[in-house]
TrEMBL record:
This is Putative membrane protein. The chain crosses the membrane at residues 37-55, 67-89, 101-121, 191-212. It comes from Silvibacterium bohemicum. Keywords: Membrane, Transmembrane, Transmembrane helix. It comes from the Bacteria.
């Protein structure tokens, strides 16, 4: 008897869309001196690009959907990196108030988590659409705990067709920014290792620079 492949498990896209909208919202917390253009510009660009992205997904235009997803995530990433650079450059001048510095650093730290979670979600194992087609997630850039379970354990947990969702990558990104390591999910791919190094470096730099400025203020 031929064993049929597991049915495709559709992965919701709204958590990833909400994460990028949140990054655009966090941009509103930055003072004008740490932003490129008006404060509302980033969230407007995100919303505008999400319309054709969602349309392409609805119409089954997966290549277009993937390209637009890369585009909007790249724009958000570039904006975050530039704002972080402006924050670093503003520290020696002492032009920003301690309150503005604290708010800006916190916003960029959270944005760093959301941005890299979006990249991990988009890139791991070919992206969400490729993971849907496979049905069961058995190979990827990260070794999630569910991937190490045998079939009997998966069946007992009701996870025979388990596949990582955005929350799994968000948890991974959060751990990287707080513990500077992936904790429960070893990293297998070189590209993922490089990205996690960059994320941890951004997180460490944000916290370290803020602490140094706070000590200087005190």
């Amino acid at each position: 008897m031929t064993t049929l492949p597991p049915p495709a498990r559709l992965e919701p896209r709204w958590p990833a869309m909400l994460a990028l909208l949140a990054v655009g919202g966090l941009r509103l917390a930055l003072p004008e001196s740490l932003s490129v253009g008006p404060a509302w510009m980033l969230i407007t660009v995100v919303v505008v690009l999400m319309v054709p992205t969602a349309w392409a997904r609805q119409k089954g235009l997966n290549t277009l959907n993937r390209v637009l997803g890369y585009l909007v995530t790249s724009i958000v990433t570039a904006d975050m990196v530039w704002s972080l650079w402006l924050l670093v450059a503003a520290l020696p001048s002492h032009k920003e108030s301690p309150k503005d510095l604290l708010r800006s650093a916190a916003a960029l730290w959270i944005a760093n988590i959301l941005v890299f979670a979006s990249w991990y979600w988009r890139l791991d194992a070919g992206g969400p659409h490729a993971r849907e087609l496979r049905g069961v997630h058995t190979d990827g850039a990260f070794l999630f705990p569910q991937m190490t379970l045998d079939q009997q354990a998966k069946r007992a947990m009701g996870e025979e067709t388990w596949s990582p969702g955005f929350v799994d990558y968000l948890f991974l990104a959060f751990n990287t920014s707080t513990a500077f390591s992936p904790t429960d999910s070893p990293v297998l791919s070189r590209w993922a290792k490089m990205m996690m190094m960059v994320q941890a470096l951004i997180s460490f730099a944000t916290v370290a620079l803020l602490a140094a400025r706070a000590v200087n203020i005190l």
